[in-house]
Amino acid sequence: MNNKDESILGLIGNTPLVKARSLVDNPNVELYFKLEGQNPGGSVKDRPAYNMIKSALERGDISSKTKIIEATSGNTGIALAMIAGMFKLDIELVMPENSTIERVQTMRAYGAKVTLTDADGGIEGSRDYAEAKMKKEGMYMINQFSNDDNWKAHYKTTGPEIWNDTHKKITHFVSSMGTTGTIMGTSTYLKEKSRDIRIVGVQPTDNSRIPGIRKWPEAYLPKIFKPEKVDRVLEVSEEDAKKMSQRLAREEGIFAGMSSGGAAAAAVRLCNELEKGVVVSIVCDRGDRYLSSDLFQ
């Protein structure tokens, strides 16, 4: 057991860290992947979803009578649906209509109401819809983009796990940036342990669409994001993210989504630049979320 909770919630966190076998040519650099798809809900988002709901319940911000709403591009929604179901909470999840059917059906399987917004509006349109409905109907919004319990989940769990599992030898941490909760919380923890650890964020190049990674317009920039906690930002193209997702599956046996491929592509690029180091890259979720897309075709 990972903690005192013997339900499925006790399986959140303590995910494996595995070493890359073939992707890195530099003999002086070790690359490790943190397999967040091993969480019970299938992604890194189980951590913040659990912390955001549990903390809101403990503070009395929500109760079994509260109607909850949240905009999501997918993985957070699945995690929230699973955990809301465990706590018998009423939740509506809003996402763009071009989200993969696997994600929509998984949320509904966990008992959530799913509302699809116009694809052209993207996740920003979903956020606008959820906010308008929250104000009109008095619903409670989780608001992962400005909720400190998002990044604190990674401060409490992801950061310590990586620090301990690399035997305090990590030199670089690489993470895709969406809500930025993963990189903010993990950076905060690791920087407390060593100011020398470099934190590398990953964003898409202009005109690239990579689910889970965003270059936000200023008006939608997550309020939890603190640029000083990221030492460097690397950009990856949609094509490079796809190719690396395919390589992860074929060469490393790691079946993961496109945002994980994007982070891995940036991590491999970084490894080839370094004289020496121990690099950890987040693998956000599992590849079976993308089988109806063209990712593995």
TrEMBL record:
<dbReference type="InterPro" id="IPR036052">
    <property type="entry name" value="TrpB-like_PALP_sf"/>
</dbReference>
<dbReference type="GO" id="GO:0004124">
    <property type="term" value="F:cysteine synthase activity"/>
</dbReference>
<dbReference type="InterPro" id="IPR001926">
    <property type="entry name" value="TrpB-like_PALP"/>
</dbReference>
<keyword id="KW-0663">Pyridoxal phosphate</keyword>
<dbReference type="InterPro" id="IPR050214">
    <property type="entry name" value="Cys_Synth/Cystath_Beta-Synth"/>
</dbReference>
<keyword id="KW-0198">Cysteine biosynthesis</keyword>
<comment type="pathway">
    <text>Amino-acid biosynthesis; L-cysteine biosynthesis; L-cysteine from L-serine: step 2/2.</text>
</comment>
<dbReference type="InterPro" id="IPR001216">
    <property type="entry name" value="P-phosphate_BS"/>
</dbReference>
<feature type="domain" description="Tryptophan synthase beta chain-like PALP">
    <location>
        <begin position="9"/>
        <end position="285"/>
    </location>
</feature>
<protein>
    <recommendedName>
        <fullName>Cysteine synthase</fullName>
        <ecNumber>2.5.1.47</ecNumber>
    </recommendedName>
</protein>
<keyword id="KW-0808">Transferase</keyword>
<dbReference type="Pfam" id="PF00291">
    <property type="entry name" value="PALP"/>
</dbReference>
<dbReference type="InterPro" id="IPR005856">
    <property type="entry name" value="Cys_synth"/>
</dbReference>
<keyword id="KW-0028">Amino-acid biosynthesis</keyword>
<dbReference type="InterPro" id="IPR005858">
    <property type="entry name" value="CysM"/>
</dbReference>
<comment type="similarity">
    <text>Belongs to the cysteine synthase/cystathionine beta-synthase family.</text>
</comment>
